[in-house]
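Anyone else keep sequences and structure tokens together like this?

Example one:
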Amino acid sequence: MTPLARPSGWLLDPSTIFLNHGSFGSCPQPVMDVQAELRLRIERDPVHFFNEELDPGLEAARQAIAALVGADGEDLVFVRNATSGVAAVLASLRLQAGDELLRTDHGYNACNNILDRAAEMSGARVVVARVPFPLRSADEVVQAVLAMTRERTRLVLVDHITSPTGLVLPIAALVSTLQARGIDVLVDGAHGPGMVPIDLSALGAAYYTGNLHKWCCSARGAAFLHVRRDRQAGLHPAVTSHGKNVPRTDRSRFLLEFDWQGSDDYTAMLTVPEALRFMSALRPGGLPQLMAENHEKALAARRLLAADLGVPLPCPDELIGALASLPLPPRSAQDPAPQRPVPAHIDPLQAVLYERYRIQVPVVPWPAPPQRLIRVSAQDYNAASDYETLSRALGALLGLRRL
């Protein structure tokens, strides 16, 4: 296969068509260079770095994130990933037997598990709102969630962009409506920052957690938790360290508790300003232009694939960001088999697409096996030819119209 030409800075294998930015992102070379230099600085004098350099570095990163997501930096703390942010919120809630925790059936499995654990430990109950997919409008999402709220609903966990189905959920409408009913909302924004515009001050959700190593392309292990000012008291990290009682008055106890979690590698968080600089420099119009172009690229990709799969578009364009999922024929014994054993959670079709065509794209069981979706991503380094190659490969493997 002829190596693919990639824009400067991306380290992806040139022989691979990478259509799965959504899972783990991709960290560009300039960002990795900054992280490598930070690690060298630490090792030259760890005591000086942690005592003198870490705080201002984290504060610079915090302000860069705040500017990106329309927030006050005083309301932002660092976590390793969005799942950790969800865990911190659930661990801090004082749930009682009979309380209800509401989520959708499009939620991320790890976060679903956190809700289940919180319910097991407290006697609360997890309630699941069934959001249709395909769906005709954002209002179907809102109505599905509202229909499952009760007097004892304590918290609603909702994705900003769903992982399996790639839907941009109407979080502004959900937050305003639920808060009017006295129900707090925790937004799992794992895919939000860098994919879609965000204004947390306007949103007003009690809690929002988002990754920076996905669509902002920082080093992995960088994420934030935004907590509305009136919900910060009593909100604690999973690890209680010196921030709990360190004699400092220059910042809130909320920031102090989260900023220092003991000896750790904080360099991923410190790469965030460089990651945002890199991503903004990719287009004359900065990150907003890149996000808009990725959106259009994802829309074009799903139109192509839908036509060749012979399926209708499963949702309106306004519910798409830079991820798009489409239904595939159900998994069957007639599917081509990979040459090597694959983990049980990987659909054989996904493995065959990689083995035969060097296409890295997820095939997701939805809503349950043997039904499944294929989910494509759109990022700076992707071109229309990537999706055309995928379409031809699916046609050849599944006997579809495009051969």
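And example two:
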Amino acid sequence: MGSSHATRISKGEVPGLELAAIADLKPEKAKLFPDTAFFNSGAELIASGKVDAVLIATPHYDHTLLGIAALEAGLHTLVEKPISVHKADCERLIAAHKDEKQVFAAMFNQRTDPRYIKLKHLIESGEFGKINRVQWTITDWFRTAQYYSSGGWRATWEGEGGGVLLNQCPHQLDLWQWLFGVPESVRAHIEIGRFHDIEVEDDVTAYLRYKDGMSGVFITTTGEAPGTNRLEIAAERGRIIVEGTDITWTRNEEESSAFCDTTDTTFGRPGTWKIQIPFSNHGEQHLGILKNFADTILKGEDLIAPAKEGLHSVELANAMIYSGLNDCTVEMPLDATAYETMLMDNIKNSTHKKVVKEPAAGADDFSKSF
């Protein structure tokens, strides 16, 4: 993603942003941007004085150390998802953001999708009434064996910190908490390497419970083709389905609980209207986040995706993994220390290929693209 973001900026697609420098472990990457300053490490770039802002697009663990270094250097910072691998590192990264004038954002590009923006408005306005149940089946993340073997850091506890929940699903987990909030408890079943020769999860079914009684089911995998992306909401005023380019609302003429308590029929149901809300596109996605990042710095606009909100999606992923590996219900908020300890044990006991996660001197030896 680093190369993709740098290309957009170099082509002038983001008003207000200029590609001043890049950093990569591979010197040949400099040829992609011949008129741009090149550094062999993120630490060198951060210390160079050549940039006002950085975009961190590296393997996951690097986000924390490079993010902290950038924030402590006074640079505006945009970090790819997830903002860190686990909750404790999220807290360390967020704590480094001490200056409110310093813009700190996360690359949650699906917050620019008109479907989810509209859905959030309808939820917050009360149009749906109380939400009783949510189910998101997001199984169109199919990945091949070649994908997982394309990088030594992929699909390992040490290199990536998890599987489908840490790599593919941060977007949906962010949208989940953005739309519905953080649950009271999480219970998950996960399978390690069900479809691939990997040491992390590639199949997940999780049950989420909320204080107001709302329940949720989150299903994901990288082993199912063609897969499904279907979000279903059961609310007092009907059923809402987000799938493809539409929001389909089968709207109850009367709230279901009120009808249940007052009807004199045995098998009656509220009358319904079918409301179709079509959308022609999925918004500007990454480009929209980049534009918003620049406009927040230069014009004082509100951030679409403040980085501090990135903690919630990581916490949900961590809670699902912890629950699945320990066969227990996780009460929220997640115990960050307990999860970090479990993750370090997983790394220590791994039999898969090792990758360098954290050099003793800091972040400068393992930046990938910046």
